Amino acid sequence: MNEKSQEQSAFASDVELDLRGVICPYNFVKTKLKLETMEEGQVLSVLLDEGDPIRNVPRSVENEGHTVLAQERLEQAYRVLIRREDN
After folding, report:
1. Domains of the chain from N-terminus onward
2. Does the annotation count 46 as an active-site position?
């Protein structure tokens, strides 16, 4: 059993992308490109700043056909868990 800390998240991620400090729309573009390299059903964990990033990135990936599984507030950022869907 993997003892990796999930920080109270119900979902395990396959890949993590730290986009803190990355401005819109680059954070969405980097998220989209990473999702394109993943297999259907894999989960991407994205760390985003508050403000425009946390408002725009989840909505944009859902518009692309992916599923936002969870959003959780961390100390100075948010973690968004996105399941790669086959579009």
Report:
1. 15-83 (3.30.110.40)
2. no
